[in-house]
Amino acid sequence: MRTIKRFIEGKPEYSDAREPTLAWYRQVRNANWATPAAVKRDIGSASILKDGRIAFNIAGNKYRIVVWINYSYRVVYIRFVGTHRQYDAIDAQTI
Predict the structure, then answer these.
(1) pLDDT digits (tens, 9 = 90+) for 27-77
(2) 41: how many CB neighbours lie within 10 A of its CB?
């Protein structure tokens, strides 16, 4: 949650990300994903990447969240939160 909070409170221009990002956080916190297919079933717009990473579209694809999921333990680690433009500038597989 600290990473999300830092992002949505970091710059005034990200204020429109607050509600969609917190809604995503609540959904993920209540999820019990054992496989990438389970993630895709719950959030159809999720992009399944390699090695347990998933990219989520937030606020109509204006923002992106990249996570790494440890499916065995049902733990989601946030690796990146940013604008779509910032996402395009990173390597989501290694961040």
Answers:
(1) 999 999 999 999 999 999 999 999 899 999 999 999 999 999 999 999 999
(2) 11
